From TrEMBL:
Keywords: NADP, Oxidoreductase
Domain of life: Bacteria
Protein family per UniProt: Belongs to the aldo/keto reductase family.
InterPro entries referenced in this protein's UniProt entry, alphabetically: AKR, Aldo/ket_reductase_CS, NAD(P)_OxRdtase_dom_sf, NADP_OxRdtase_dom
CDD domains the UniProt entry points to: AKR_AKR1-5-like
Name this protein carries in UniProt: Aldo/keto reductase family protein
Residue intervals of the NADP-dependent oxidoreductase domain: 17-152
Pfam families, A to Z: Aldo_ket_red
SUPFAM superfamilies: NAD(P)-linked oxidoreductase
Length: 157
């Protein structure tokens, strides 16, 4: 069954091939969506700070009946986070909202803030700073894997 299939990331962490994407799921409904998805066999839950549903995702994780270690939770730094200090704070906020000791994967959601996407400013330095914060959280065991989303080849400069 494809819900049981995984990919291996470069650091040897296994990520389920299929996950529940929670974009457009209101915070009021996200917990039940997680519970129902886990009942169906999903083990990867994908959220983001921008979705505004991390706290409800947490309740779904707690109440889904599957051990935390058997789930793969992905979240993303808000696209507007473009400094080291903001990234450190955002990582800690996601850990708190998700009520987790670690997040399986955290991603820089976008190379540019959404309101400036495709603009001239590439935010190279801000993305480097956010990446440094992700690396430090990875080294500290707060994150098991890190990555980027919506970047093009020139995304880091």
């Amino acid at each position: 069954m494809i819900l049981n299939e995984t990919y291996q990331l470069s650091n040897k962490i296994e990520i389920p091939k299929i996950g529940l994407g929670t974009w457009f799921i209101d915070n009021d409904d996200a917990a039940q969506a997680v519970i129902e998805a886990v009942k169906l066999g999903y083990r990867h839950i994908d959220t983001a700070q921008a979705y505004g549903n991390e706290s409800s995702i947490s309740q779904g994780i707690i109440n889904c009946g599957v051990n935390r270690e058997d789930l793969f939770i992905t979240t993303k730094l808000a696209a507007e986070v473009k400094s080291y200090e903001e990234a450190v704070s955002s990582i800690n906020q996601s850990l708190e909202k998700l009520n987790l000791d670690y997040i399986d994967m955290m991603i820089i959601h976008s190379p540019q803030p959404w309101m400036e996407f495709d603009g001239e400013e590439r935010f190279f330095e801000g993305n480097r700073e956010a990446w440094r914060a992700l690396e430090e959280a990875y080294e500290a065991g707060k994150l098991r894997a890190i990555g980027v989303s919506n970047f093009q080849k020139r995304g880091f400069g």
